[in-house]
Sequence to fold (111 residues):
Amino acid sequence: MRKVLLIGSLLLAASAQAQNVTGNPAEGAKLVATCQGCHNEGGGYRSSFPEIYAVPMLNGQNAQYIVDALKAYKDGSRRMPTMRAVAASLTEQQMADIAAYYAVPKGESIK
Ligand code: HEC
Fold:
C-alpha cells in the first residue's frame, strides 16, 4: 500500500514538473481554425475524411485531457492518422494554448 502511494506521488511530481507550460486561451483561439472543420460545435460530430470517424467534441473538455490526448497522438500511442499528423505539428505550448481555449465552455456561439 505504501509503495503504491509512493509511486503515485512520484508520478504526480513528475507530471507537475512537465506542466511548466501555461495555456493561453487567446493564443489557442488563433490555432483552432483547422480543428474546427472537424471538431465543430454543431452537427453530428462526424468527419468523412479519410473515412467516417465519430469526431469527439472538444468544447468544455478538461484541458489536461486535451494535452494528454494530443501528446499521445504525437508520440504514436494514439493511432488515428489525421490526428497524428495534426498533433505532430504542435509544440507543447500550442497544445496547452489550444487546451486552455477548449476548456472554456462556449455553447453554440463560436463557430
Ligand atoms: C480531419 C478532421 C480533424 C481535424 C482537422 C482535427 N481533428 Fe482532432 N480528431 C478527429 C477525429 C476523427 C478524432 C477521433 C480519433 C480517434 O478515434 O482517436 C479526433 C480526436 C481528437 C482529440 C481526442 C479527443 C478525445 O475525446 O479523446 C483531440 C484532443 C483532438 N482531436 C484535438 C484536435 C485539435 C486541437 C485539432 C486542431 C489543431 C484537431 N483535433 C484537428 C478529427 C480531426
